[in-house]
Write a structure and sequence with these properties.
This protein is an alpha/beta fold and about 200 residues long. Helices cover about 15% and strands about 30% of the residues. It starts with a strand and ends with a strand. The mean pLDDT is about 95.
Length: about 200
């Protein structure tokens, strides 16, 4: 039998409730807490990058999903949440009975209310609050607090809201660059330094 990849990071190790199932090709790194009755399937990656990842009772993380806690924002799933295949969640809070369909994306500081749905390839952007019983249609984008939900082709309207949410400042602590300049050298240096802490990780 192949063992699940459990990795200690920054002195913290994953914990898995005895009634949970974690597939042998899943990876749990750092302060990851898998609750009672949870299921974490093949290829899923749950990584605590300075902030914890917590799965509430009965939650399911499907194949190849990535869940990342950050120093600024923990990643918290409530009870009976389903995270679909290839979904990506970082530094967000998801309340009970939420459905996040295949390919959904939920970004730093976002909060998703109870019984909400984010359908295939839907996006809940940075610092967005999706109230209980909300729905983001297939490939649409939810932005802001109060939330507005846009079809993907409305780029100008999306950017008008998104710009004020300050992704580079909130996530990386950087000012948006002047026109014609790139933020990527600073992001690569800062994010690379943080990710370099994994060089001291230990497999359990």
């Amino acid at each position: 039998m192949i063992a699940t990849m459990l990795i200690a990071h920054e002195g913290r190790s994953p914990t898995v409730h005895p009634t949970a199932y974690v597939a042998p090709t899943a990876t749990l790194c750092g302060d990851v807490r898998v609750g009672a009755g949870c299921r974490v399937l093949f290829g899923a990656v749950l990584t605590a990058e300075g902030g914890p990842v917590e799965l509430g009772e009965g939650s399911i993380v499907m194949e190849n999903a990535v869940l990342r806690g950050t120093r600024r924002d923990a990643l918290i799933l409530g009870r009976q949440v389903l995270v679909g295949p290839t979904s990506y969640l970082t530094g967000c809070r998801v309340e009970d009975e939420v459905f996040l369909a295949s390919g959904s994306r939920v970004f730093n500081g976002a909060r998703i209310g109870t019984r909400s749905e984010v359908r295939i390839n839907g996006i809940v952007h940075l610092r967005t609050v999706l109230p209980a019983d909300s729905m983001v249609p297939i490939a649409w984008v939810a932005l802001g607090d109060p939330v507005r939900i846009f079809p993907p082709e409305d780029h100008a309207e999306i950017w008008a809201v998104q710009k004020n949410l300050d992704f580079p400042g909130y996530v990386f602590g950087l000012d948006r660059p002047a026109d014609g300049e790139s933020l990527m050298p600073a992001i690569a240096e800062r994010f690379g330094r943080s990710l370099g802490l994994h060089s001291n990780d230990q497999q359990i």
